[in-house]
TrEMBL record:
The active site is at D72. GO terms for cellular component: cytoplasm. One of its GO terms (biological process) is nucleotide metabolic process. It holds the Pfam family Maf. This is dTTP/UTP pyrophosphatase.
């Protein structure tokens, strides 16, 4: 069976993959994450997920028994991509823009290996209640927003801002587990499965 490698430095992705009991080895690969001019958000996340997976495979010397998983998450407001905040001012601007309304979270997962490549993009709608300036300052001081797309983590303190989610919770955190399991199956990699029914 092929060996799975996770091309990600994100602790969230490691935890999510571990959650569905898939054995893997981490193989971090860094790529340029600058969007192309006028690149649509869904195309952007899919391209980055594929590039991360390809870079991981390259770093492994193109091992033919390796399958590499890459993923990318972007917060999208009115068609505009919100990445990770560079500083407090950017974080404040993002959270004020997200306050009291809904936005999309796009996450792509890609698998590369054995001469094949495949990817899925999952879109979820997240609504925030209105957020005050004081809350934004306190949230920044918690340290949580700085390494997260859109400057928040639904799995953390920012859960109190979220009044509605339509879509995939795991995708918002960083890896759509249902679609990931399907893709892994297509590449012949076993993950957690419901026990088969024996004869009665
Ligand atoms: C919206 C949202 C994002 N995030 C995180 C998931 C990703 O780690 C990060 C988006 O940045 P990414 O560039 O997708 O990923 P990364 O740089 O953290 O890791 P790598 O490229 O090595 O795989 O934001 C949350 O943890 N919770 C959330 O609610």
């Amino acid at each position: 069976m092929a060996e799975l490698f996770l091309a990600s430095a994100s602790p969230r992705r490691r935890e999510l993959l571990a959650q569905i009991a898939v054995p893997y080895v981490t193989q971090i690969a860094s790529i340029d994450e600058t969007p192309l001019p006028d690149e649509p958000p869904a195309a952007y996340v899919e391209r980055l997920a594929r590039e991360k997976a390809r870079a991981g495979l390259l770093a492994l010397g193109g091992r033919d028994d390796a399958v590499v998983l890459g993923a990318d998450t972007a917060v999208v407001l009115d068609g505009r991509i919100l990445g990770k905040p560079a500083d407090f001012n950017e974080s404040r601007a993002m959270l004020l823009a997200l306050s009291g309304r809904s936005h999309q979270v796009l996450t792509a997962v890609a698998l590369v290996g054995g001469g094949r490549e495949a990817a899925r993009v999952v879109s979820s709608d997240v609504s925030f209640r209105p957020i005050s300036e004081a809350e934004i300052e306190a949230y920044w001081a918690s340290g949580e927003p700085c390494d997260k797309a859109g400057s928040y983590g639904i799995q953390g303190l920012a859960a109190v801002f979220v009044n509605q989610l339509q879509g995939s919770y795991s995708a918002v955190v960083g890896l759509p587990l249902c679609e990931t399991a399907e893709l892994l199956g297509e590449f012949g990699i076993a993950c957690w499965q419901l026990p088969t029914q024996g004869p009665h």
